[in-house]
């Protein structure tokens, strides 16, 4: 049996709140009881009668103290029950008999208000969680969540299709076993080619971190780019073939017609007196269309073989003024911008601006308008604008389709080549109608 050291003192057992309340009520009554005993035993009378009277007073005092204890403890137990229900997530209980200007009543009112607030917040969270779950389930993008040890904890239906198994079979498997281990360490979005049980192709992978129950988790979002790229490629080929077919038919139709005319002319017996003149005219048409086809193929080859840019630093203002002076059909007003140097392929930038200025002058000549060339800094970008006073953009979605043109004798590669040059430099080319007048604004943005 262990011996308690005299140096170690146990903490005295404290009374609970109910006992302290009862003793306190009795202590408050002690002076009145002593006064009553002094008066009672000092008066004349039998001792037994005095003892019975004193005992009755003591019993009544104890009963009143017990009733006071019960009335003080009941609302406290009620509040404890309400708070326990809140802790357990039951927000339906409410305290009754609560009123203002009463200490206990105001506490119960506040608990009821807190319960209602928590109930509304939980409903809102549950509704948002249900909406989020439905959105994730409807996504055609694989969403997977892994815990800090790299074990799968969540996968939407798209991820199940990608991995070729339902979540009940995938739950708890490691990222390495699923072939996703290297993607959990990604810092930036990545495009990768990989094969999965549910398909193979090019995938865009994004990783993010989040916490659940205070523990870190990793979120992988995997997007299938192959289907989108194939659809875009199909649409691009359709647009290109439509334009190519139009161009080829424009040349092949007269060639076929002239060939039939020559065959009919040479098959006649005897030959007509002017057959040589007719044959020469037909052969001339065939030659012209063949030469047009040759020029068309040369333009196509030049467009398809645009070399990568070779950047070097040059003063943009000098290049802009030089390009403006090359246009002789209409004076180009140069609005001077900041005198800066940029690093780019000056030959390609010059060619792009020449193409855009040519289109602007063509549009302005038809409407007797002018052309303005201006530039400005836009953050870390150089914004170049070519403003014309033509009739504005035509209602067509094929402006940037190779060989599509709305101008008689146009090549249909000027805009496409200009945009290809801008994008090769990390920039962009956009076209929009002017807001202040008739005409169009061609805007080139380049890294400054």
What would you note in describing this structure?
- The protein is α+β, with helices and mostly antiparallel strands and about 450 residues long.
- The chain folds into four domains: about 15-130, no CATH class; about 135-230, PAS domain (Beta-Lactamase, 2-Layer Sandwich), CATH 3.30.450; about 230-300; about 310-445, Histidine kinase-like ATPase, C-terminal domain (Heat Shock Protein 90), CATH 3.30.565.10.
- About 50% of the residues lie in helices and about 20% in strands.
- The protein contains ten helices and twelve strands.
- It has helices at about 15-40, 45-85, 105-140, 155-165, 165-170, 225-265, 275-305, 315-325, 345-365, 415-425, and strands spanning about 140-145, 150-155, 190-195, 200-210, 215-225, 310-315, 330-335, 340-345, 370-380, 380-390, 430-435, 440-445.
- It has a five-stranded antiparallel beta sheet. The chain has a five-stranded mixed beta sheet with strand order 7-9-10-12-11, covered by helices on one side. A two-stranded antiparallel ribbon has the order 6-8.
- A hairpin with a 4-residue loop joins strand 1 and strand 2.
- The radius of gyration is 46 Å and the shape is elongated.
- Mean pLDDT is about 80; it is low at about 1-10.
Discrete helix count: 10
Q: Determine the CATH topology of the largest domain.
A: Heat Shock Protein 90
Number of strands: 12
CATH architecture of the largest domain: 2-Layer Sandwich
Low-confidence stretches: 1-8
Strand order of the largest sheet: 2-1-5-4-3
Give the rounded overall mean pLDDT: 79
Q: What's the gyration radius in Å?
A: 46 Å
Largest sheet: 5 strands, antiparallel
Organism: Dokdonella immobilis
GO molecular function, one term: protein histidine kinase activity
Subcellular location: Membrane
Keywords: Kinase, Membrane, Phosphoprotein, Transferase, Transmembrane, Transmembrane helix
């Amino acid at each position: 049996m262990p011996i308690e050291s005299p140096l170690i003192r146990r903490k005295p057992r404290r009374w609970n709140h109910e006992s302290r309340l009862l003793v306190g009520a009795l202590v408050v009554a002690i002076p009145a009881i002593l006064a009553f005993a002094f008066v009672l035993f000092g008066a004349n009378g039998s001792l037994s009668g005095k003892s019975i009277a004193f005992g009755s007073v003591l019993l009544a005092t104890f009963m009143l103290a017990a009733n006071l204890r019960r009335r003080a403890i009941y609302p406290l137990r009620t509040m404890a029950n309400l708070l326990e229900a809140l802790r357990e997530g039951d927000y339906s209980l409410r305290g009754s008999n609560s009123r203002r200007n009463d200490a206990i009543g105001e506490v119960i009112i506040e608990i009821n208000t807190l319960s209602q607030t928590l109930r509304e917040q939980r409903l809102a969270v549950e509704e948002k969680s249900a909406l989020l779950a439905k959105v994730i389930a409807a996504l055609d993008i694989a969403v997977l969540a892994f815990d800090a040890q790299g074990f799968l904890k969540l996968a939407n239906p798209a991820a199940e299709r990608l991995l070729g198994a339902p979540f009940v079979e995938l739950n708890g498997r490691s990222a390495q076993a699923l072939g996703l281990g290297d993607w959990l360490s990604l810092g930036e979005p990545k495009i990768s080619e990989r094969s999965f049980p549910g398909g193979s192709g090019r995938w865009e992978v994004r990783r993010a971190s989040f916490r659940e129950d205070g523990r870190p988790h990793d979120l992988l979002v995997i997007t299938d780019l192959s289907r989108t790229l194939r659809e875009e490629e199909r649409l691009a080929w359709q647009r290109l073939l439509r334009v190519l077919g139009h161009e080829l038919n424009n040349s092949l139709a007269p060639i076929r017609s002239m060939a039939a005319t020559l065959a009919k002319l040479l098959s006649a017996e005897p030959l007509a007196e002017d057959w040589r003149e007719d044959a020469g005219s037909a052969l001339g048409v065939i030659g012209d269309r063949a030469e047009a086809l040759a020029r068309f193929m040369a333009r196509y080859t030049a467009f398809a073989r645009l070399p990568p840019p070779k950047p070097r630093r040059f003063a943009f203002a000098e290049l802009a003024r030089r390009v403006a002076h090359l246009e002789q059909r209409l004076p180009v007003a140069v609005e001077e911008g900041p005198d800066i140097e940029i690093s780019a392929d000056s030959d390609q930038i010059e060619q792009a601006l020449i193409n855009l200025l040519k289109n602007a002058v063509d549009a302005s000549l038809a409407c007797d308008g002018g052309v303005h060339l201006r530039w400005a800094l836009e953050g870390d970008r150089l914004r170049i604008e070519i403003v014309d006073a033509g009739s504005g953009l035509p209602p067509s979605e094929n402006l940037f389709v190779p060989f599509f043109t709305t101008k008689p004798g146009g090549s249909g590669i000027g805009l496409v080549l200009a945009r290809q040059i801008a994008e090769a430099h990390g920039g962009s080319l956009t076209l929009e109608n002017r807001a202040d007048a008739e005409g169009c604004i061609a805007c080139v943005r380049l890294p400054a």
